[in-house]
Amino acid sequence: MFYHKCTANNSAIMPTVLVQSIGMPGLLSGQRYGQHKGSGKLRRSVKMMSSIQMPALRMTNFSGLRALNTLDGLSRPKQDFHFNTLSTIYSRRERASRYVPKAMFEAFTEKAIKVIVLAQEEARRLGYNFVGTEQILLGLIGEGREWELTLTMLAWKWKRREFVAVDILFTPRAKHVLALSLEEARQLGHYYIGSEHLLLGLLGEGEGVAARVIRMVGEGADSVGATVGLGSSNNNKMPTLEEYGTNLTKLAEEGKLDPVVGRQQQIDRVIQILGRRTKNNPCLIGEAGVGKTAIAEGLALRIVNGDVPKTIEGKKIVLDKYFRGVLNDVISLDMSLLVAGTKYRGEFEERLKKLMEEIKQSGKIILFIDEVHTIVGAGAGEGAMDAANILKPALARGELQCLGATTLDEYRKYIEKDSALKRRFQLVKVPEAIVDETIQILKGLRQRYEIFHKVRYTDDALVAAAQLSHQYISDRLLPDKAIDLIDEAGSLVQFQHAQLPEEARELDKEVRQIVKEKEESVRNQDFEKAGELRDREMDLKTQISAIIEKGKETSEAGDGDPIVTEVDIQHIVFFWTGIPVKKVSTDESNRLLKMEKTLQKRVIGQDEAVKAICSAIYRARVGLKNPNRPIASFIFSGPTGVGKSELAKALAAHYFGSEEVMIRLDMSEFMERHTVSKLIGSPPGYILEDGRLTDNRGMTVDFKNTVLIMTSNVGSSVIEKEGRRKIGFDLDYDEKDISYNRIVSLVTEELKQYFRPEFLNRLDEIIVFRQFTRLEVKQIADIMLKEVFERLKTLKIDLSVTERFKERVVDEGYDPSYGARPLRRAIVRLLEDSIAKKILASEIKEGDSVIVDVDSDG
């Protein structure tokens, strides 16, 4: 006896399976015949019995549908051939009559395996020791709703049994059903066994419980065969395509595709290329979100409507699902139908060539491969040819018509390097939609989103979605970002509409509390109180129902469904970007008008700079700014410590809500010549004029909704020289203005010598910061001292200072060359250090009130 530990590599949630092998493995009693030339079908015959020496496998920790991937892992080993079997189908060696050969399950599709797993689960749940035809039918019902069979329709009940054996085997009748399903697949020329074949096998068996139940509801083999499209007279010659692809033409016929508005030029170009005799393979090139897949859907809609040339009339468009995930490990692919049995070299090529052969024989297939660059290297493991090299000859000869779609970067990276593959595709560039086209697209999609969200969109909401997404969401493209806006806005409005009114929510909280009290009263056998609480509960529930009904009547009086307006779109844009784009309300208008005074209280003595900043914000907020330029761009020039950085922080905190939203760039990082490579693609002035910057990865950053503030110490020497003439301390108001204007003129001239004219000419304004007067220095000292007071309040200590102490701080802390920064150091030295020592010495404790003064020694 020996043990093997098997794990499923393709599922992160798969339980570990312990497989016990008993006895020596033998050979299956099965036969397989090769493929005959000219037959076009793989003939396989497997006897429904197995060798008595087939090893038994048991599985522990088997739970629900998770066992599906476990079984899948067991049926696809990498080394041990004898473990390549479905574990729970086999039992002990003395029950050979109920064995089912391994070869059959190799051909089972994922859905068919799931049916078997669910059948076993149903047998366990109902207490049966076997899997019969009725359990297989329940497995088909549980696997999905493809056949429109439900338990209610079947009206059949199985009695639960008390004892369940460890090993659940197949009854001879169930084995016969599996044999018939294999025969159905063989007759149809399918190399796989799917859930549809199992259903046909149940009907073909005819005598089992499942067949009788299906006949009770009036379903026969012919009707079911017609339903699944696989009856004995079925003419389906494209099982591979049907299994791996999605038929867009069929979806268009059924009205399941969204309408395609615009893009007529690109669709016409695609049709023109498809009409060529050779190299008739268009490739859509465009960034993500511009609508490449929509062009393929538009082509399908045109084919259905007959609005195409006769050369491609009647063709089908199949969306190939395989190439999307083929670069992953084979075991972890979602397309289990394709990888079933492709463990060995050459099997991938065989499957792909079957697909190509079906397309060639049909002559009416246009294969749409989204992310077409993934065919390069696909399936090239273990020295095999990749999909691109297999497809090249067919693409060149016109035997395979392929419509590809990819981005420009991926096309250059993967396809352009392969000149042979490149010349087989004809490029069709798909540009980003303009705002007007996007509005028409949104109007075309309006009905679909209204039905889905059960809301109504106003025309203003659609226009706002196109315009605001274009203006404020720069990292995505139209029409994708506008469609996402209306989608999320519809979800938001429906969510708000579905919530209980505020009054009803309060009553609901009260009901929950009453229920708890009632249950407590019952436990305490206080039934009188419980009855009173029950009456109160029923009364509150009646009130809640009345409020809800009233809300419904109001909604119905207002034409039913809630309405998505322009304000809802603006709300979503604010969620995404953090930029306030709503129209200025009365409250916000008052707040903006008070912004100047608020900033002046925080930034002392720099009224000119505050006025310039506020004026730029006013223009932007009412919509007067140039939409292609930043909100404003300034150079703050002046000596250190006069409030240049503080004003930028104050603006971020007041207008944008937090100082954290301010992005600081230290341009000293770009002083050296070699560091300029960090910023590429943006010649001088592009940020200020066009509002964009390209980084070293080729990503474009949008500056159109930003305030650019650049600080510089250029001109500090001029300001310091004027400061020696006691500017700001001894002159009156008019003299100070004259001196300040003279300083501005001198600093501007120095800036012109330092910066190039094309840079300075794109700035909105050059602002020279003043030096502080003594009164202004004292006001700054008050602000800094208040910060200390607030910190001490958290320690429950009340601190105040005298005017003499403030004068002492101003005398020691102000230096015309360094601005207000020495003032902070003076407060730390004269106040904070002393307070800290006294707190540590317990001379100052919680709840104390402290007054700081200057003694006779100063």
Model description:
49% of the residues lie in helices and 10% in strands. It has 5 domains: 81-93 and 101-207, Clp, N-terminal domain (Double Clp-N motif); 239-431, 3-Layer(aba) Sandwich (Rossmann fold), CATH 3.40.50; 436-575, P-loop containing nucleotide triphosphate hydrolases (Rossmann fold), CATH 3.40.50.300; 584-768, Rossmann fold; 774-852, Orthogonal Bundle (Helicase, Ruva Protein, domain 3), CATH 1.10.8. The model is unreliable at 1-98, 145-166, 229-235 and 321-341 (pLDDT under 50). The protein is α/β, with parallel strands linked by helices.
Reconstruct the topology from this structure.
Layout: E1 2-6, E2 17-21, E3 31-35, E4 42-45, H1 66-74, H2 102-106, H3 110-126, E5 130-131, H4 133-143, H5 151-154, E6 169-170, H6 172-187, H7 195-205, H8 209-216, H9 221-228, H10 239-244, E7 245-247, H11 248-253, H12 264-274, E8 282-285, H13 292-305, E9 316-320, H14 336-339, H15 347-362, E10 365-370, H16 387-397, E11 401-406, H17 408-415, H18 419-422, E12 426-429, H19 435-453, E13 456-457, H20 459-472, H21 480-498, H22 502-523, H23 527-557, E14 563-564, H24 566-577, H25 586-593, H26 595-602, H27 607-622, E15 632-637, H28 644-655, H29 686-690, E16 692-694, E17 700-702, E18 707-712, H30 716-723, H31 733-754, H32 757-760, E19 765-768, H33 774-793, E20 798-801, H34 803-813, H35 821-840, E21 849-852
Parallel strand pairs: 5-6, 8-11, 8-12, 9-10, 10-11, 13-14, 15-18, 15-19, 20-21
Antiparallel strand pairs: 1-2, 3-4, 7-9, 16-17
